[in-house]
Write a structure and sequence with these properties.
The protein is α+β, with helices and mostly antiparallel strands. The protein is built from 4 helices and 2 strands; from the N terminus they run αβαααβ. A two-stranded antiparallel sheet has the order 1-2.
Length: about 80
Amino acid sequence: MPLWLYPVWMWHWARPADPRVPWGVAARIPLPDAAAARKRRAVGRFISQIAPLAEGEENAAVLPPEEIAHHTRPFEVVFR
């Protein structure tokens, strides 16, 4: 049975062409529009991660805008 790995946290430290990432075994999977919309709604539910909890730098959102953009794009990247 094939095993596909979904790199949730890799996107915090890796960028395209990062030599620590096995890009040769990566696959890009386009998401149907309905699935992408559901995923955007799901990400929007994690208010404690995507919005400030209160005023002040110590209460900033956990995920920066580029991380949110990654999780709301119309495709997924998985690894074999």
